[in-house]
Amino acid sequence: DWWKPITVQEHFGSLHDVTGTLIGTVGTLPEVAEGAEYTELEIGDSPETASFTKYGGYIPLTLELIDRDETRKLKAYARELGSAGLRKISALVSEIFTANAGVGPTMADTGALFNATAVTTAGGHANLLTTALAITAWDAACQAVYNQPMLIKNAAGLYGTGPKMAINPKYCLVPRALQNTAWQMLKGEFVREATYVYDNVLKGSAVPVTVPEWTDATDWAAVCDPVIAPAIYVGERFGIMPEIYVAGDELSPAVFMNDEHRLKVRHFLAVWVNDFRPLHKSNVA
Predict the structure, then answer these.
(1) Distance in angstroms between the alpha carbons of the first and the last residue of the chain
(2) pLDDT per residue over 132-159, tens digit each?
(3) What is the DSSP annotation of the chain?
């Protein structure tokens, strides 16, 4: 469940398409002279859409198989189906960072989730670097996130003109190959460089998180605390845990015809990115 701290989990009451709307900030209030008329404030929104997808399958259990289950291994199947559902969420969230050769899905503003284009340009996100994970690289990513301008309105002349988000990332996402590097950088007492050893000022400034699905040994990412700056949403229809059913009475078609009981798992999920600003990626060459 590595994905839980970096996402917002939300329940929905129907399977209609989801529209995640990011409301623009007012920015800076203009001065109003004595007796002067108030002017209209520029403000907009940025809608991202997602659709629910149904995932599932079943395990056939014949009467003979059940009767010969002396080791009680069949009891483990339900746990395995539940685990498979959670691992599916894990895969869907991890793919946000690896889709389309590592630049992620295309956002509503027409830009790839991760790109190096200036935020003053339509679709520009300025949240992609190519530097290997190290103290200086982490600081560069943190600065880029901190300096991200809040949304005012996706319109010419207003791109990238909002006040700074002023939030540092809380989570450092890494593949297993970089886990030790991330832990030393963000949890270690000391930093060792060549013949020098000094106190680690970054200790506790962020939390290293290992993403099991990532196979690239050098790419990494930074994510803000979703309580403060939400970016990734996991929507569920009938629960964050998958539904598990048993068709096992004698009048169930498969049991009646074939003495086959069925253990079925079903999961309705929608995973999407609502805002690029709290996310940063480094695709290391």
Answers:
(1) 29
(2) 999 899 999 999 999 999 988 888 888 8
(3) -TTTTTEEEEE-SS-SPEEEEEEPP--SPPP--TTPPPPPPP--EEEEEE--EEEEEEEEEEHHHHHT-TT-TTHHHHHHHHHHHHHHHHHHHHHHHHHHHHT-PBPTTSSBSS--S-TTSTT----EE-PPSSHHHHHHHHHHHHTPBPPS-SSTTTTT-SPB------EEEE-GGGHHHHHHHHH-SEEEETTEEEE-TTTTSSEEEE-TT---SS-EEEE--TTTS--EEEEESS-SSPEEEEE-STTSHHHHHHSEEEEEEEEEEEEEES-STTEEEE---
What are the tens digits of pLDDT across the range 26-51? 877 889 999 999 988 888 888 889 99
Spatial CB neighbours of 130, under 8 Å, sequence gap ≥ 6: 282, 283, 284, 285
Residues 6 or more apart whose CB falls under 8 angstroms from that of 37 comprise none
Q: How far apart are CA 283 and CA 95, in angstroms?
A: 14
Which residues does 98 contact at the CB level (< 8 Å), separation at least 6? 104, 213, 214, 216, 219
Residues 107/111/114/117 CA torsion (nearest 10 deg): -150
Judge whether 141 and 133 are in contact, CB under 8 Å.
Answer: no
Cα 104 to Cα 281: distance, rounded to the nearest angstrom:
10
